[in-house]
Amino acid sequence: AAIKKEKFSEYQTQRDDNSVKLSYYYKFTGGDYIAKNLTFGLRVRGKRKRKSEFSDLLSIEARILSLPPRGVRAIVFKDRIEISWNPAEKNIDQSSPAYFKGYNIYRAEEEGLHLRINSKLVNERKYDDKDFIIGKVYRYFVRASAAELPPFSESDDSEVVRILARDTFPPATPTGLVSIAAENFISLSWDENPEEDLGGYRVWRKMEGQEEYVLLTQQPIRENAYNDTAVEKNKRYYYAITAQDRLGNESPKSESVSEVIK
Protein backbone atom coordinates (compact mmCIF):
# COMPACT_ATOMS: atom_id res chain seq x y z
CA ALA A 1 0.00 0.00 0.00
CA ALA A 2 1.21 3.51 -0.76
CA ILE A 3 0.40 6.46 1.53
CA LYS A 4 0.75 9.87 -0.08
CA LYS A 5 2.14 12.76 1.94
CA GLU A 6 -1.12 14.69 1.86
CA LYS A 7 -2.81 11.68 3.48
CA PHE A 8 -0.40 11.44 6.43
CA SER A 9 -2.84 13.17 8.79
CA GLU A 10 -5.30 10.28 8.40
CA TYR A 11 -2.74 7.88 9.87
CA GLN A 12 -1.19 10.22 12.43
CA THR A 13 -1.58 9.11 16.07
CA GLN A 14 1.03 11.28 17.82
CA ARG A 15 3.04 14.39 17.07
CA ASP A 16 5.56 16.53 18.94
CA ASP A 17 8.29 19.02 18.02
CA ASN A 18 10.73 16.34 16.88
CA SER A 19 8.67 13.48 15.44
CA VAL A 20 5.40 12.25 14.01
CA LYS A 21 3.97 8.80 14.73
CA LEU A 22 1.81 7.08 12.11
CA SER A 23 -0.31 3.97 12.45
CA TYR A 24 -1.48 1.72 9.60
CA TYR A 25 -4.17 -0.96 9.72
CA TYR A 26 -4.14 -3.96 7.45
CA LYS A 27 -7.69 -5.12 6.89
CA PHE A 28 -8.51 -8.68 5.94
CA THR A 29 -11.21 -9.22 3.35
CA GLY A 30 -13.23 -12.21 2.23
CA GLY A 31 -11.53 -15.47 3.14
CA ASP A 32 -8.16 -13.73 3.51
CA TYR A 33 -8.10 -14.15 7.27
CA ILE A 34 -7.12 -17.81 7.27
CA ALA A 35 -4.08 -18.54 9.42
CA LYS A 36 -0.93 -17.28 7.69
CA ASN A 37 2.33 -15.43 8.31
CA LEU A 38 2.47 -11.81 7.18
CA THR A 39 5.61 -9.69 6.88
CA PHE A 40 5.47 -5.89 6.92
CA GLY A 41 8.14 -3.37 6.01
CA LEU A 42 8.28 0.37 5.40
CA ARG A 43 10.21 2.49 2.89
CA VAL A 44 10.06 6.09 1.72
CA ARG A 45 9.74 7.32 -1.86
CA GLY A 46 11.17 10.76 -2.72
CA LYS A 47 9.91 13.40 -5.11
CA ARG A 48 12.03 11.87 -7.89
CA LYS A 49 10.38 8.50 -7.18
CA ARG A 50 13.60 7.09 -5.75
CA LYS A 51 12.89 4.59 -2.96
CA SER A 52 14.76 4.04 0.29
CA GLU A 53 15.79 0.65 1.63
CA PHE A 54 13.17 -1.23 3.63
CA SER A 55 12.96 -0.66 7.35
CA ASP A 56 13.38 -3.58 9.72
CA LEU A 57 10.82 -6.20 8.79
CA LEU A 58 8.03 -7.25 11.13
CA SER A 59 6.54 -10.74 10.83
CA ILE A 60 3.11 -11.45 12.25
CA GLU A 61 1.17 -14.69 12.41
CA ALA A 62 -2.44 -13.93 11.56
CA ARG A 63 -4.94 -15.79 13.73
CA ILE A 64 -8.54 -16.75 13.35
CA LEU A 65 -10.21 -14.88 16.19
CA SER A 66 -13.40 -15.58 18.05
CA LEU A 67 -16.49 -13.55 17.46
CA PRO A 68 -17.13 -11.18 20.42
CA PRO A 69 -18.91 -12.35 23.57
CA ARG A 70 -22.69 -11.95 23.65
CA GLY A 71 -25.37 -11.00 26.16
CA VAL A 72 -23.28 -8.74 28.39
CA ARG A 73 -25.07 -7.89 31.65
CA ALA A 74 -24.21 -5.75 34.68
CA ILE A 75 -25.73 -5.89 38.17
CA VAL A 76 -24.93 -3.55 41.07
CA PHE A 77 -24.29 -5.13 44.45
CA LYS A 78 -23.35 -3.32 47.65
CA ASP A 79 -19.64 -4.10 47.29
CA ARG A 80 -19.24 -4.68 43.54
CA ILE A 81 -20.64 -4.41 40.03
CA GLU A 82 -20.90 -7.88 38.52
CA ILE A 83 -20.39 -8.10 34.75
CA SER A 84 -21.38 -11.37 33.07
CA TRP A 85 -21.65 -12.56 29.47
CA ASN A 86 -22.08 -15.54 27.16
CA PRO A 87 -19.16 -16.82 25.08
CA ALA A 88 -19.26 -16.76 21.31
CA GLU A 89 -19.97 -20.08 19.62
CA LYS A 90 -18.06 -19.39 16.39
CA ASN A 91 -14.97 -17.67 15.01
CA ILE A 92 -14.92 -14.83 12.50
CA ASP A 93 -14.68 -17.34 9.64
CA GLN A 94 -17.81 -19.09 11.03
CA SER A 95 -15.80 -22.13 12.11
CA SER A 96 -16.49 -23.64 15.51
CA PRO A 97 -15.86 -24.01 18.35
CA ALA A 98 -14.78 -20.44 19.07
CA TYR A 99 -11.06 -20.18 19.84
CA PHE A 100 -10.04 -18.05 22.83
CA LYS A 101 -8.03 -18.31 26.05
CA GLY A 102 -10.05 -15.88 28.19
CA TYR A 103 -11.54 -12.42 28.36
CA ASN A 104 -10.62 -8.77 28.90
CA ILE A 105 -13.11 -6.33 30.41
CA TYR A 106 -13.15 -2.65 29.49
CA ARG A 107 -14.85 0.16 31.41
CA ALA A 108 -15.55 3.84 30.80
CA GLU A 109 -17.04 6.51 33.04
CA GLU A 110 -19.82 8.55 31.41
CA GLU A 111 -18.50 9.41 27.91
CA GLY A 112 -14.82 8.78 28.67
CA LEU A 113 -12.48 6.26 27.02
CA HIS A 114 -12.80 2.57 27.75
CA LEU A 115 -9.82 1.13 29.67
CA ARG A 116 -9.05 -2.49 30.52
CA ILE A 117 -9.75 -3.08 34.24
CA ASN A 118 -8.63 -6.70 34.72
CA SER A 119 -4.95 -7.18 35.58
CA LYS A 120 -4.82 -10.70 34.12
CA LEU A 121 -6.92 -12.61 31.65
CA VAL A 122 -10.33 -13.62 33.04
CA ASN A 123 -11.18 -17.29 32.60
CA GLU A 124 -14.71 -17.22 34.01
CA ARG A 125 -17.83 -15.80 32.37
CA LYS A 126 -18.14 -13.01 34.90
CA TYR A 127 -16.03 -10.31 36.53
CA ASP A 128 -16.49 -8.34 39.77
CA ASP A 129 -15.61 -4.66 39.49
CA LYS A 130 -15.00 -3.54 43.08
CA ASP A 131 -13.45 -0.17 42.26
CA PHE A 132 -16.56 1.94 41.69
CA ILE A 133 -18.34 4.95 43.18
CA ILE A 134 -22.04 5.01 44.05
CA GLY A 135 -23.90 7.52 41.90
CA LYS A 136 -21.68 7.26 38.83
CA VAL A 137 -22.61 5.83 35.42
CA TYR A 138 -20.33 3.15 33.95
CA ARG A 139 -20.17 1.52 30.52
CA TYR A 140 -18.65 -1.92 29.97
CA PHE A 141 -17.76 -4.17 27.06
CA VAL A 142 -15.89 -7.49 26.85
CA ARG A 143 -13.40 -8.93 24.36
CA ALA A 144 -12.30 -12.54 23.94
CA SER A 145 -8.54 -13.06 23.65
CA ALA A 146 -6.65 -15.78 21.83
CA ALA A 147 -3.49 -14.99 23.84
CA GLU A 148 -3.00 -15.38 27.58
CA LEU A 149 -0.46 -12.56 27.89
CA PRO A 150 0.02 -9.15 26.23
CA PRO A 151 -0.02 -8.32 23.44
CA PHE A 152 -3.51 -9.82 23.40
CA SER A 153 -5.10 -11.07 20.18
CA GLU A 154 -8.60 -9.84 20.85
CA SER A 155 -12.01 -10.16 19.26
CA ASP A 156 -14.13 -7.18 18.35
CA ASP A 157 -15.97 -5.43 21.18
CA SER A 158 -19.10 -7.00 22.60
CA GLU A 159 -22.16 -4.82 22.90
CA VAL A 160 -21.80 -2.06 25.49
CA VAL A 161 -23.81 -2.27 28.69
CA ARG A 162 -24.51 0.95 30.63
CA ILE A 163 -25.38 0.99 34.32
CA LEU A 164 -25.93 3.53 37.10
CA ALA A 165 -24.23 2.47 40.33
CA ARG A 166 -27.25 3.28 42.50
CA ASP A 167 -27.46 2.55 46.23
CA THR A 168 -30.59 0.50 46.88
CA PHE A 169 -29.16 -1.42 49.82
CA PRO A 170 -30.68 -0.96 53.30
CA PRO A 171 -28.71 -1.01 56.55
CA ALA A 172 -28.62 -4.15 58.65
CA THR A 173 -31.63 -4.90 60.83
CA PRO A 174 -31.09 -3.44 64.33
CA THR A 175 -30.35 -5.95 67.06
CA GLY A 176 -30.31 -6.08 70.85
CA LEU A 177 -33.61 -4.27 71.43
CA VAL A 178 -34.59 -4.17 75.13
CA SER A 179 -37.36 -2.34 77.00
CA ILE A 180 -37.69 -1.13 80.56
CA ALA A 181 -40.94 0.09 82.13
CA ALA A 182 -40.65 3.19 84.31
CA GLU A 183 -43.38 4.92 86.30
CA ASN A 184 -44.87 6.84 83.37
CA PHE A 185 -42.84 5.91 80.27
CA ILE A 186 -41.22 2.94 78.55
CA SER A 187 -37.51 3.16 77.79
CA LEU A 188 -36.10 1.44 74.70
CA SER A 189 -32.47 0.84 73.73
CA TRP A 190 -30.65 -1.25 71.09
CA ASP A 191 -27.23 -1.88 69.60
CA GLU A 192 -25.72 0.72 67.29
CA ASN A 193 -25.62 -0.05 63.57
CA PRO A 194 -22.13 -0.05 61.98
CA GLU A 195 -22.97 1.56 58.59
CA GLU A 196 -21.09 4.74 57.71
CA ASP A 197 -24.04 6.08 55.70
CA LEU A 198 -26.57 5.49 58.48
CA GLY A 199 -29.23 8.20 58.57
CA GLY A 200 -30.92 7.14 61.80
CA TYR A 201 -33.51 4.88 63.38
CA ARG A 202 -37.30 4.69 63.27
CA VAL A 203 -39.34 3.45 66.23
CA TRP A 204 -42.51 1.45 65.65
CA ARG A 205 -45.24 0.51 68.16
CA LYS A 206 -48.47 -1.42 68.30
CA MET A 207 -50.85 -2.22 71.11
CA GLU A 208 -52.04 -5.65 72.10
CA GLY A 209 -54.68 -6.77 69.60
CA GLN A 210 -53.44 -4.52 66.79
CA GLU A 211 -52.03 -6.09 63.61
CA GLU A 212 -50.03 -3.18 62.18
CA TYR A 213 -47.25 -1.15 63.75
CA VAL A 214 -47.57 2.64 63.94
CA LEU A 215 -44.52 4.87 63.41
CA LEU A 216 -43.66 6.92 66.51
CA THR A 217 -40.72 8.91 65.08
CA GLN A 218 -41.70 10.89 61.99
CA GLN A 219 -38.03 11.76 61.42
CA PRO A 220 -35.20 9.22 61.96
CA ILE A 221 -33.45 9.63 65.31
CA ARG A 222 -29.67 9.43 65.63
CA GLU A 223 -29.57 7.95 69.16
CA ASN A 224 -29.96 4.23 69.71
CA ALA A 225 -32.42 4.89 72.55
CA TYR A 226 -35.96 6.21 72.84
CA ASN A 227 -38.45 6.98 75.62
CA ASP A 228 -42.13 6.44 74.83
CA THR A 229 -44.11 8.78 77.09
CA ALA A 230 -47.49 8.36 75.34
CA VAL A 231 -48.37 5.25 77.32
CA GLU A 232 -51.10 4.22 79.73
CA LYS A 233 -50.93 1.89 82.70
CA ASN A 234 -52.02 -1.73 82.46
CA LYS A 235 -51.76 -1.75 78.67
CA ARG A 236 -49.22 -3.85 76.78
CA TYR A 237 -47.17 -2.23 74.02
CA TYR A 238 -45.06 -3.94 71.37
CA TYR A 239 -42.02 -2.22 69.82
CA ALA A 240 -39.70 -2.74 66.84
CA ILE A 241 -36.89 -0.66 65.33
CA THR A 242 -35.78 -0.09 61.72
CA ALA A 243 -32.56 1.52 60.48
CA GLN A 244 -32.50 3.94 57.55
CA ASP A 245 -29.57 5.23 55.50
CA ARG A 246 -29.16 8.78 54.22
CA LEU A 247 -30.81 7.85 50.89
CA GLY A 248 -33.92 6.48 52.59
CA ASN A 249 -33.19 2.76 52.21
CA GLU A 250 -34.78 1.08 55.22
CA SER A 251 -34.00 -2.20 56.95
CA PRO A 252 -36.55 -4.81 57.96
CA LYS A 253 -38.02 -4.42 61.45
CA SER A 254 -36.04 -5.76 64.37
CA GLU A 255 -37.30 -8.50 66.64
CA SER A 256 -40.07 -7.06 68.77
CA VAL A 257 -40.18 -6.58 72.53
CA SER A 258 -43.24 -5.85 74.70
CA GLU A 259 -43.73 -3.99 77.95
CA VAL A 260 -46.55 -2.95 80.26
CA ILE A 261 -46.65 -0.26 82.98
CA LYS A 262 -48.26 -1.51 86.16
UniProtKB/TrEMBL annotation:
It comes from marine sediment metagenome. SUPFAM superfamilies: Fibronectin type III. The lineage of its organism: unclassified sequences, metagenomes, ecological metagenomes. CDD domains: FN3. Residues 170-262 form the Fibronectin type-III domain. This is Fibronectin type-III domain-containing protein.
